[in-house]
Amino acid sequence: MSIQVKTKERVAVVDVTAQVEEAVPDDVEQGVCTAFVPHTTAGVVVNENESGLLGDVERALDRVVPRDGGYEHDLIDDNADAHLRSMLLGESVSVPVVDGGLDLGTWQSILFVECDGPRTRSLDVTTASA
Ligand code: ZN
Q1: 89 CA → ligand 1 middle, Å
Q2: Which residues pair with 93 in a beta bridge?
Q3: Ligand 1 center to residue 33 CA distance, Å?
Q4: If you measure from the C-alpha of residue 99 to the centroid of ligand 1, how many angstroms do you get, rounded to a whole number?
Q5: What are the chain's domains?
Q6: What pLDDT, in 10s, does the model give residues 79-122?
Q7: CA of 110 to the centre of ligand 1 (A)
Q8: Directed axis angle between helix 51-64 and helix 80-89, to 10°?
Q9: Which among 118, 116, 112 is positioned nearest to 2, based on CA atoms?
Q10: What is the DSSP string of 56-93?
Q11: Measured in angstroms, how far is the CA atom of residue 69 from the centroid of ligand 1?
């Protein structure tokens, strides 16, 4: 199953926990749910959905991988920072499914990180029953 994630800014963090949870089939009680980003300039992580922290993520990405870093890829496609940021974030997360639901920690959410928006992206969710 694929979830659509829409953003309005170039860099944005979107909490997709509810949509991923909804994508877990009703007949899976125990297993593993994987959310995979089929793109090269966006990522997905598990962390805390706290507004200050979400801003911190964007600022930290900007410090670690500045927008204009003199990258070679910018010569053909002006978005090298977005590729590099998505590589640091990772393209998938796996979450245990227990009693039919995502077994996330109290402060954990699934966060989609757009690095080259605004646009509409796909997030592929697959669940394996154990
Ligand atoms: Zn590119």
Answers
A1: 16
A2: 35
A3: 29
A4: 41
A5: 2-129 (2.60.120.460)
A6: 999 999 999 999 999 999 999 999 999 999 999 999 999 999 99
A7: 25
A8: 120
A9: 112
A10: HHHHHHHHHS-S-S--SGGGTSS-HHHHHHHHHH-SEE
A11: 14
